[in-house]
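Researcher: Sit down with what I've pasted below and flag anything odd:
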Amino acid sequence: MIVKRIIPCLDVKEGKVVKGTNFVSLREMGDPVEMASAYSQAGADEIIFLDISATNEGRQTMLNIVKKTAETVFVPFTVGGGVKSIEDVTRLLQAGADKVAINSAAVANPALIREAASRFGSQCVVVAVDAKYMENSWHVMTHGGSKDSGIDALDWVREAELQGAGEILLTSVDTDGVKDGFDLELTRIVVESVRIPVIASGGCGKPEHFSEVFRETDVSAALAASIFHEGTFSIEQVKQSCAAQGVDIREAGLF
């Protein structure tokens, strides 16, 4: 059995970690370098850094912050936001990222996934999918969840896998920041649609939500922001809760 991963996510805007609800009403949470370092030491299995305003602002990911963050963490480090070209992927990997997440640009140009996978290996390529329920299906949202692509999310994750993606980062726009639990239905059908690992994101409000998504779906990892950033629960508490529910989890501090 594959050990499940617990991942804190740093949504970064203007150099600060922020968090909102349904991708809006953002509030400042802290310094990304300091927070990433603390999570790495606290037992995170991976850290994801998303420059959430880069695409809308038409700029590249903040490489200086990525470099500083990469120097402080000792777990796999995924970076996304504003990735538009193979050159952007190259820069982020050279800055210290282990994996690069591509979202809006991949929807506009799926060949970017194949080019990145061919050059760096599928294990480096994460396709981030922001999905929102609309008219009896989930649509892929781009540009920080603000634009409806009109593309069915299930069709898109299958295409992303076909193009060479090594992993899917699935975020439910509907449950993001709501803290009532992950979108189990969306997560389940996406996991069942692909053979590559899927990270569940959006809606976690307590440790039990992690064990729930692990028990109810075959997701490989689950991600949270609010409960960790606000200090509501620690990574260790989440892992202890999961273990108590029979989830195969790596103990905090063991790598």
About this structure: The CA atoms of residues 93 and 234 lie 29 Å apart. The mean pLDDT is 91.
